[in-house]
Amino acid sequence: MTKPQQALCILIFSFSFLVNLAESRLSIDYYSKSCPRFNQIMQDTITNKQITSPTTAAATLRLFFHDCLLNGCDSSILITSTPFNKAERDADINLSLPGDAFDVITRAKTALELQCPNTVSCSDILAVATRDLVTMVGGPYYNVYLGRKDVRVSKAADVEGNLPKPTMPMSQIIDIFAKRKFSVQEMVALSGAHTIGFSHCNEFSGNIYNYSRIPHYDAHYNPRFAEALQKACADYQKNPTLSVFNDIMSPNKFDNLYYQNLPKGLGLLESDHGLFNDPRTKPYVELYARDQNEFFKAFARAMEKLSLYGIKTGRRGEIRRRCDAFN
Ligand code: HEM
Question: Is 200 a catalytic site residue?
Answer without folding.
Answer: no
